[in-house]
Amino acid sequence: MALLHSSLCSCCALFLLAFTLLQAPRVYGRETESRYVVGVRSLLPSSVCSSPRDSNPSMMKVVHRHGPCSPLTPGRKPANIKLLNQDQARVNWLQRQISIASNGTRASLATTIPANSGGSIGTGNYVVSVGFGTPKKDFTVIFDTGSDITWIQCQPCSDGNCYSQQQPLFDPSQSSTYSNISCSSPSCMKLDSPDCSAGRCRYEVEYGDNSQSMGFFGSDTLTLTPSDVLPNFLFGCGDQNEGLFGRAAGLLGLGRRPVSLVSQSSPKYGGVFSYCLPSTSSSTGYLTLGSGPLSNIQFTPMQTVSDSPSFYFLDLVAIQVGGKQLQISPTVFSNAGTLLDSGTVISRLPPSAYAALRLAFHQQMTRYKMAPALSILDTCYDFTGYDTVSVPTVALMFGGGTTLNVDFSGILYVPNVSQACLAFAPNGDAKDFGIIGNAQQKRFNVVYDIANRRIGFGANGCN
Ligand SMILES: *[C@@H]1O[C@H](CO)[C@@H](O)[C@H](O)[C@H]1NC(C)=O
Ligand SMILES: *[C@@H]1O[C@H](CO)[C@@H](O)[C@H](O)[C@H]1NC(C)=O
Ligand SMILES: *[C@@H]1O[C@H](CO)[C@@H](O)[C@H](O)[C@H]1NC(C)=O
Fold first, then answer.
1. Which residue has a Cα nearest atom 14 of ligand 3?
2. Torsion region of 43: left, alpha or beta (phi above 0 gives left; psi -120 to 50 gives alpha)
3. Which one from 144, 209, 432, 449 is the annotated catalytic residue?
4. Ligand 2 lined by 418 (C-beta under 6 Å)
5. pTM to 2 decimal places
6. 79 CB contacts (<8 Å, ≥6 apart)?
7. Which segment of the chain is annotated as a signal peptide (predicted)?
8. Per the structure, how many domains does the chain have?
9. Residue 374: CB within 6 Å of ligand 3?
10. 202: CATH
11. Which residues form the domain of 430?
12. Does a structural domain hold residue 224?
């Protein structure tokens, strides 16, 4: 059973909805190097999608799963507390995977959340649309850097074995380019623990909660954009799927193992992909194989944890608040390690690093009244009655001299103006690895260059 996980996202819905900064650029700026000034009204959600006119046809469009730009019909908006609890469930699951892999030396699970409170998939916030087969059929899928296999729900699927999705199920018998994969095929051996049924290779992937997908492993043409067409792409044709996938048709796996999209396409794209996550759910970003725009990218070394070969690690070395570096020993970060994840929403820090961040942030926010904590977020402010607010900048510094100046949309999680919370959380144990979540990645061109073992960040990536 493959222990993968996925997620990207579900939690950010309101988070992103809460920001309409791209639509209101004039009320959003840096007062100085050390503070952002933001119009409070721009914190309120927008229900209208504003897609850039000149969106690049050679890139997949990334949208928030629950926002007005999503092709998926809106379901009931999940409550913020539920979204944040799901985010914690994903983190618990990720940390458990890695602690199992590294033999239990990191045993603690920072859990204030009941273990059965939900899934790691449910936090999958971002989706893209891709085409399978010939003629091509388009499907909206979750994309996830924390798992490897790509799968979509397929026919035939017995009653109740597939969840209900937006688009009709993919029918391989209607595609002239679909191939079955036999159990003896080398392609089948790319799976962690392949199964065999009547001579045909089967995959199985289980995510953090009860979410899972099983089915036949097959190959077909994958059309990402008109110019990015991958023949004979290996993917799962799910016939038993359940979990928190919403109405998405499946999942695009962007991990590092041989079966992932990045690995399969590396002869063509050199083992590089990049994305930009939009700052709001009413705007769009992109996902592209290859590096995307390379202007002003700063790179930091990509670290590998040999027991956890799917995951992308990097070296967080310091944090700045309001332009001043916090007094945190670098060993606090290096002892724990740091994972870059597209599917965790809120970044997680070693407890002492978080305490230093919270203290420095709060000392620069004393003009605002505090508001109650929200799930895992314990540092919240009430902006009622203000036209604009001024918030200290936050920067994450990585090995190699790379600095990520967190966008304003990644500093506060704002369900409403009376409760705007610092969008970071502590781990329960100093040995748990930290996570750079998707909130803090927003508006950066994030480049995963596996071939050269480096990760890049470029500001203003979505423009
Ligand atoms: C796991 O770690 C424990 C002690 O920490 C050790 O006794 C055990 O042999 C290790 N197991 C494996 C499979 O490495
Ligand atoms: C794949 O296998 C199924 C079941 O044996 C069969 O019905 C189908 O025609 C095969 N598809 C192809 C393209 O060979
Ligand atoms: C703001 O959001 C919080 C958490 O979702 C909620 O408890 C509170 O009632 C909301 N306040 C208003 C004024 O909507």
1. 416
2. alpha
3. 144
4. no
5. 0.85
6. none
7. 1-29
8. 2
9. yes
10. 2.40.70.10
11. 293-458
12. yes
